[in-house]
TrEMBL record:
Annotated DUF5648 domain residues: 55-175
UniProt cross-references to Pfam families, sorted A to Z: DUF5648, Glyco_tran_WbsX
Species this chain originates from: Actinoallomurus iriomotensis
Family matches, as InterPro entries: DUF5648, WbsX
The protein, known as: DUF5648 domain-containing protein
Length: 553
């Protein structure tokens, strides 16, 4: 259970320093890494030195090199192109004007060659690929000119440019105006090797052996006598997956989930990853992750791992990472996952690791981080990736732990499971964009589908007593009385608005991490359920403009 927000004020102070922005142009691996990204990536626009002209590239390393040479990155939204040809694609060429520092783009090889042969231009080659005809989700991209400069203009801005005196110079092809990379956190412990302490409490409270769905199925009243404790009139019928109460160690389970998620446009799962130091140390609670890797349709989605190195234990299973096991843990992640063909990559090609908790590393505690040991862990991850694959990583830290300090080993922040202490989901949705402003630089945005830990009553949270007052219940449990899928849609619209207006670094600026696919004991579940069907996935697909045939429950 990764929820740690609001309980880490002291820890956040340790990290409250400006984030370090690592420029991909400073890494020897950058160009080769970005070539491994086959999905559309943002077309970057830069102003040349002295505001003399314009320059465009898909390659972040090239953009950063240009910026280091006097150009300035513009936070314009031109669209998303691919770096590789695809069925139905056409190349877009970049042409340099020799007389002054400016460029133009062209969809015509003949124009590129003719200008090159004129002596006043240099046809530099292909900058990227657009669709030759309109595809679902695409709009036309144009070249426009006012007689002294050329601009690249999305269809939605064409009239505004014409009003400023620009004429249409020709089409460049069809591109995606938005192309969000949306994924969900996956809790891969619904299996016999999962949380034994929780299952022992289920046995004690409900009398069932080996039931990793205990509490959830009891609140739903599905296949067992209904037991909603203090909330007998509340509807918990959503607490049953559409595919039934499953075993996530079975590849067939993951195949169904991959199908549902990918058809709604989700592009990745992020798996919680735990470490157990017993017996020299090994990864823990990995059955769901391993089943994903064995799924016949695994290539339909990417995945990443999210190390949750907690300072606590689940019963007698410690989740702490001792300092003398850091290298082993890092090597395990590199050996088992980073080399997988569908491991999640940022727009600049770096494999991504989102760290959920660092307080269990080295001598960390619930209220303090061992900064030196944490830096050793991120360094070890980078060393393994460099030695095994010749690649650099993009490593981000859970926003609940604050902004990463300079030199901490993190490239930025990801936010994940959130609970608003106002107890209002509407307030949470309305406040999300303001919340994002607390985290400068690289940010992997998030959206929480909900939060409700009442199914943990008696099995993971001590019950406050049969005669507990509402105040006592609210002190023990977290939930929203005003939660609705419509309000979840409002939250998603606010996240998209923040992306559209963003001036952040582009590496993960269009990434959204949803909490969660299947945090059923905590009320964070977008996985189709018996009551709501595909409603959560439908909202995500609609509000974040995702492609896909649509979720089938």
């Amino acid at each position: 259970m990764p929820y740690i927000r609001r309980a880490v004020v002291a820890v956040a102070l340790l990290f409250a320093v400006a984030v370090v922005v690592v420029r991909p142009g400073d890494r020897a691996y950058a160009a080769d890494q970005q070539g491994k990204v086959t999905r559309p990536v943002p077309l970057l626009e830069l102003r040349t030195a002295g505001d003399a002209g314009w320059f465009w590239t898909l390659n972040e390393a090239e953009a950063n090199s240009a910026a280091n040479s006097g150009m300035s990155l513009q936070h314009t939204r031109l669209g998303y192109l691919r770096a590789q040809p695809f069925s139905g694609s056409q190349p877009i060429y970049r042409i340099r004007v020799l007389a002054r520092p400016t460029y133009l783009l062209s969809a015509s090889k003949q124009e590129c060659d003719t200008l090159d042969q004129s002596g006043g231009y240099d046809c530099e080659g292909i900058v990227g690929y657009a669709a030759a005809s309109q595809q679902p989700g695409t709009d036309e991209l144009w070249r426009m000119s006012n007689g002294s400069e050329w601009r690249v203009v999305p269809e939605a801005q064409r009239a505004a440019f014409a009003a400023k005196g620009y004429r249409t110079d020709g089409p460049l092809g069809y591109v995606y105006p938005t192309y969000d990379q949306v994924g969900a956190i996956y809790f891969g412990s619904f299996d016999a090797d999962g949380n034994q302490d929780l299952m022992a409490h289920v046995k004690s409270v409900y009398g069932r052996d080996g039931d990793w769905w205990g509490g959830v199925r009891d609140f739903a009243g599905s296949g067992v006598p209904v037991n909603r404790w203090h909330w007998p009139q509340t509807d918990f019928s959503d607490l049953e997956p559409s595919i039934g109460y499953y075993d996530d160690s079975q590849p067939a389970t993951l195949e169904k989930q991959i199908s549902a998620a990918s058809s709604a446009g989700l592009s990745y799962f992020t798996f919680y990853w735990y470490w157990n130091p017993a017996g020299g140390g090994a990864e823990q609670y990995i059955d769901g992750l391993k089943a994903f890797l064995k799924a016949a349709n695994r290539s339909n989605m990417d995945f990443s791992v999210m190390p949750c190195l907690h300072p606590w234990s689940n019963g007698d299973v410690s989740l702490h990472l001792p300092e003398d096991q850091i290298d082993k843990a890092a090597k395990t992640i590199a050996d088992e996952y980073l080399g997988q063909p569908n491991y999640l990559r940022a727009n600049d090609g770096r494999p991504m690791i989102q760290v959920c908790d660092t307080r269990g590393i080295g001598d960390g505690t619930a209220t303090s981080v061992d900064a030196e040991a944490t830096k050793r862990f991120t360094d070890a991850l980078r060393t393994e990736a460099r030695n095994e694959y010749g690649e650099d990583l993009l490593i981000t830290l859970n926003a609940d732990l604050g902004v990463p300090a300079s030199g901490s080993g993190f490239d930025g922040t990801q936010c994940q499971g959130q609970y608003d202490t106002s107890r209002s989901f509407q307030h949470y949705a309305d406040d999300q964009r303001a919340y994002f402003t607390n985290f400068p630089g690289t940010l992997m945005r998030c959206a929480s589908s909900g939060f409700d830990d009442r199914p943990r009553d008696g099995i993971a949270i001590a019950d406050p007593g049969a005669n507990a007052t509402e105040q006592q219940l609210e002190a023990s449990f977290h939930w929203y009385d005003d939660h609705s899928i419509d309000r979840f849609g409002t939250l998603l619209a606010n996240v998209q608005a923040d992306i559209d207006a963003s001036a952040r670094p582009p590496a993960v600026d269009n990434f959204v991490l949803v909490y969660a696919w299947n945090e059923w004991h905590e009320g964070g579940h977008i996985e189709p359920n018996k009551r709501d069907g595909c409603a959560y996935l439908d909202a995500i697909q609609a509000k974040l403009h995702l492609l896909g045939s649509g979720c089938a429950s």
